[in-house]
Amino acid sequence: MKIIFYEQNADLDAWLGGLRRELPDADLRVWEPGDTAPADYAIVWRAPHELFANRPDLQAVFNLGAGVDAILDVERKEPGTLPPNAKLVRLEDTGMAQQMVEYATYCVLRYLRRFDEYDALKREGRWQKLPQHARESFTVGVLGLGVLGGEVAKGLLKLGVPVRGYSRTPKTIEGVQVHAGAEQLDAFLDGVKVLVNLLPHTPDTEGMLNARTFARLARGAYLVNVARGPHLVDDDLIAALDSGQLAAATLDVFHTEPLPPDHAFWTHPRVTVTPHISAETLREESIVQIAGKIRALARGEPISGIVDFRRGY
Ligand code: NAP
Ligand code: GLV
After folding, report:
1. Does the beta carbon of 149 sit less than 6 angstroms from any atom of ligand 1?
2. Which pick of 116, 135, 188, 299 has the fewest CB atoms within 10 Å?
3. CA of 258 to the centre of ligand 1 (A)
4. Do domains 2-94+281-298 and 96-273 have the same CATH topology?
5. Which residues form the D-isomer specific 2-hydroxyacid dehydrogenase NAD-binding domain (predicted)?
């Protein structure tokens, strides 16, 4: 079988070495512009359109991340970019769920125990005790209950705070109050104190973190966006922070990455910025998962993690 690999920022020796160890019989090469030789599988992250052109033999494209928005956006704008018979397969967890649980847990604890405010007081040299937030009303709402959001919701239960979850279709997660579908969105949002976003970026979810959404949360709520930048209406966040409707936000993803130097988020005292690190693609786990799926496909067996183009994730 022939496999092409493309990831601009990867340690190529390490990736290719691991893939060759798992798939010793594969003919594996790094794709470079101008390479139109046949390939059965592609393993890619943010690949140029050209990589996909004229590849009727391509059976599957493995996306080196959970989010497939970039690749689907190309297909939406230029239909037919992806070979018609190729499955698009996303990473399923591969160590990202634990990273997301850690990131969300840190944010919720930081806000619950007011460490962000103590940091600000310390900068002013002030010794001042603040009243504790009531844990039982410090409701965390997790938007998206998929591979990552589901684990985050379960992980947050351990903090003893009420946890709500929101998905497109109904789910059951013990201890989590689950809402599903657009008609239950307001019930999910009403009174939430920390909103954690783990939705995929699709036409339906773009801009969901907006003024209307913020207005339904508890007064002085917190936002944690670890999904995609276009979920957030940046100006609505600034307005909600300035009005006091939101107390603070932690943002890991942005409309433009790296976040432009003149963006207001850099200097806003109540916005925490991290550079898209909440859950990184772990090489070894990803190699093992992708190689296992390639072996299964080669045997004609079904695999999980296939993206539904119609749903957009
Ligand atoms: P996933 O398994 O596809 O789960 C998506 C969840 O969102 C599902 O529960 C789905 O509902 C729900 N959903 C989708 N569209 C919806 C809508 N219109 N209304 C309500 N719920 C909707 O995705 P995942 O693996 O958990 O990853 C989520 C996202 O995290 C990725 O798409 C990516 O953008 C982001 N991410 C970010 C980083 C980072 O480092 N910042 C790392 C990894 C991933 P159903 O369950 O009903 O289908
Ligand atoms: C990272 O953002 C991913 O989608 O895996």
Report:
1. yes
2. 299
3. 22
4. yes
5. 108-278
Distance 65 CA to ligand 1 centre (A): 12
> Ligand 1: which of 148, 172, 204 to mutate, judged by most atoms within 8 Å of the beta carbon?
148
Separation of alpha carbons 286 and 292, rounded Å: 10
Residue 207 Ramachandran class (φ > 0 left, ψ -120 to 50 alpha, else beta): left
Determine if ligand 2 sits within 6 Å of the CB of residue 67: yes
Quick one: which ligand is closest to 102's CA?
A: 1
**Domain range 96-273, its CATH number among 3.40.50.720, 3.30.1360.120, 3.40.50.300, 3.30.1050.10:** 3.40.50.720
Testing ligand 2's pocket by substitution, the residue of 69, 98, 281 carrying the most ligand atoms inside 8 A of its CB is 281
CATH code of the region 2-94+281-298 = 3.40.50.720
Q: Can you tell me the distance from the alpha carbon of 293 to that of 89, in angstroms, rounded to the nearest whole number?
A: 9
Task: Give the pLDDT confidence of 118-159 residue by residue, as tens digits.
Answer: 999 999 999 999 999 999 999 999 999 999 999 999 999 999
pTM: 0.98
Residue nearest to atom 1 of ligand 2 (CA): 65
Condensed to tens digits (0 to 9), the pLDDT of residues 204-231 reads: 999 999 999 999 999 999 999 999 999 9
* Domain residue ranges in the chain: 2-94+281-298, 96-273
